């Protein structure tokens, strides 16, 4: 059976759980506690040098990281139902879209890490923080942890992030959805899955006003359709805040 190292609220983990659920694949769940920096332990970094979740251990013991890559792998090895376009050009477009959405993650972090991550990180002493930061492999995430622990994002920065998500995600999706129910047209695909965790957060906290039928009618309808999919319930894409 697959083993998934993940977090229930982690956006990238949510993508992989959605993909597994669409395919009807079971997995053994190993929760990684980001507030305990479990993803920066030497053992985890050996499996994913980027020090982020999710990580999927295959049935033969090999492991894979990067949610988009994992979803593509699952789709190649379990064809039914197909979650990628049949056309090579469209598959290339799908990969560009995933890459684009991945590039927006910093704008989500500004909101997401202000909850349970900040609650814990603000309590660390300077010495503890310095020690933990040593193990964070990327400069960008070291900065995110530092900001979360010591210098909360300003209202201006939060507004800037909101704007980037509106322009980079909602407006673009609105245009893409003119071609069909799903982001790449008639077939639900990994392109849709890639956007789900972002839209969940935009809808529940970041910019719910942008998710109305009046502001982004096609995205609004898409989000209703996404939440009605049985896999959405199976994947456990629950509320971000609260216990
Ligand atoms: N591009 C990666 C992003 C993974 C990622 O950013 N994971 C987050 C949780 S959603 C994480 O592990 N954050 C902890 C950290 O950066 O310290 C993917 O899609 O798998």
Query: Roughly what is the average pLDDT, rounded to an integer?
Result: 97
In total, the number of domains comes to: 2
The helix content is 55-70%
The ligands found in this model are: glutathione
Give the ordered list of helices and strands. Answer: EHEHEEHHHHHHHHHH
Secondary structure tally: strands: 4
- Adjacency order of strands in the biggest sheet: 2-1-3-4
The major beta sheet can be summarized as: 4 strands, mixed
Rg, Cα atoms, Å: 18 Å
CATH fold name of the largest domain, please?
Glutathione S-transferase Yfyf (Class Pi), Chain A, domain 2
Tell me, briefly, the overall form. Answer: globular
CATH architecture of the largest domain: Up-down Bundle
Content-based structural category: alpha+beta
The rounded distance between the terminal residues' Cα atoms is: 29 Å
The CATH C-level name of the largest domain is Mainly Alpha
* % residues in beta strands: 5-15%
Low-confidence stretches: none
In DSSP terms, counting alpha (H) and pi (I) runs of 4 or more, how many helices?
A: 12
């Amino acid at each position: 059976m697959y083993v998934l190292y993940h977090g229930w609220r982690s956006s990238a983990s949510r993508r992989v759980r959605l993909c597994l659920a669409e395919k009807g694949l079971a997995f053994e769940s190993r929760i990684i506690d980001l507030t305990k920096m479990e993803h920066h332990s030497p053992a985890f970094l050996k499996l994913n040098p980027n020090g982020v979740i999710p990580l999927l251990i295959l049935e033969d013991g090999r492991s894979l990281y990067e949610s988009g890559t994992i979803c593509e792998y699952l789709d190649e090895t379990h064809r039914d139902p197909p979650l990628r376009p049949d056309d090579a050009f469209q598959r290339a477009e799908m990969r560009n879209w995933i890459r684009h959405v991945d590039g927006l993650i910093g704008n989500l972090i500004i909101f997401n890490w202000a909850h349970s991550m900040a609650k814990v990180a603000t309590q660390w002493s300077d010495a503890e923080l310095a020690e933990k930061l040593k193990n964070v492999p990327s400069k960008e995430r070291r900065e995110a942890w530092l900001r979360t622990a010591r210098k909360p994002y300003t209202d201006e920065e939060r507004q800037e992030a909101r704007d980037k998500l509106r322009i980079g995600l909602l407006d673009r999706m609105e245009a893409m959805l003119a071609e069909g129910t799903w982001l790449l047209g008639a077939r639900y695909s990994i392109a849709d899955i890639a956007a789900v965790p972002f839209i969940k957060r935009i809808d529940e906290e970041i910019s719910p006003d942008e998710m109305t039928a009046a502001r982004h009618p096609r995205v609004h309808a898409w989000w209703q359709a996404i939440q009605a999919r049985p896999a959405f319930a199976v994947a456990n894409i629950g509320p971000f805040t609260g216990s």
